[in-house]
């Protein structure tokens, strides 16, 4: 699948300056390309800081590409996790079917970088965004765009907007199936079937498949949670089969976050061999995992079946936080210079991992809270001599989606496990 390499490569011409959080003043006024031609070191950067680990990124990307291919599913990574075209390109080069996104603006940004196939895992009822899709599809017949609808009212509104404002080809739409107490999505098979019939009768839309998000129905790996996810995926498969005679061409069946990908493969991969009445053998099962590339040391490390060391080699965290001790007001408390503006906290607080070039962290060290610009690092049994002011602590982080959105430019280091990490790339994000 395509992306415009020239546009992505042009990011290296961006000038560094004080608008780039924590960038070294010595780099200001230089382009990214110029900065990287030197021998930049992690120690040149200020704290707080978020970094990516090149070795882990490469290993995670290769692992997921091989795993999804072996499982018989296509992979459309959720691009909203990173909003980083450089990383999207790496995923597409590794064989990704397309890029998943969540809003019209995100899709427009991806398209500006030449992404040729976009799956919008959401309904699109914004008139401006919907008109843009129609215009872009008319401008480039090779551009593939898919979105969702979960009600007849949604279909009717989309159809009206397109008839009133934007000539062009019909927009491909997947029927979104939801679940009780979940997020969006038709709540029953009958409601989903009605949506499909409305799409078939639409002037400007076309029924292109079914989709949904099983991660909205569970948040752990208890037997009850796994049963709920399996039951939902089986309902999605049944809906697809029921719609077989309504499809006018190839169909998409899409599910999957990063928490239960193996269940998606187990329950849906077989649909790719289904013989549809209108387009035999043309079902594509699309997995939309987004967090796998970066992974984490928190929520996904605990729930993903592909995490190391449970899986071998397994996914491992490619992101770390770095923060400096700025105050030791009490023997068992250190205040670090990073906080909610710098590190994610919605799926678990950062976890202290090591002291850079110093002694080991005291046993039981943990983060108890974050303020906007402070991390409260508790040090049970410690003294003022432990972890002195100025020490740099590496932090494990949870949830890449809410880590990336705090950083405009993220340094990539060769490895977080080396004594003197070298900066080998800078990743531009768009949030």
Automatic annotation (TrEMBL):
<protein>
    <submittedName>
        <fullName>D-serine deaminase-like pyridoxal phosphate-dependent protein</fullName>
    </submittedName>
</protein>
<dbReference type="InterPro" id="IPR042208">
    <property type="entry name" value="D-ser_dehydrat-like_sf"/>
</dbReference>
<dbReference type="Pfam" id="PF14031">
    <property type="entry name" value="D-ser_dehydrat"/>
</dbReference>
<dbReference type="InterPro" id="IPR029066">
    <property type="entry name" value="PLP-binding_barrel"/>
</dbReference>
<feature type="domain" description="D-serine dehydratase-like">
    <location>
        <begin position="318"/>
        <end position="414"/>
    </location>
</feature>
<dbReference type="InterPro" id="IPR051466">
    <property type="entry name" value="D-amino_acid_metab_enzyme"/>
</dbReference>
<dbReference type="InterPro" id="IPR026956">
    <property type="entry name" value="D-ser_dehydrat-like_dom"/>
</dbReference>
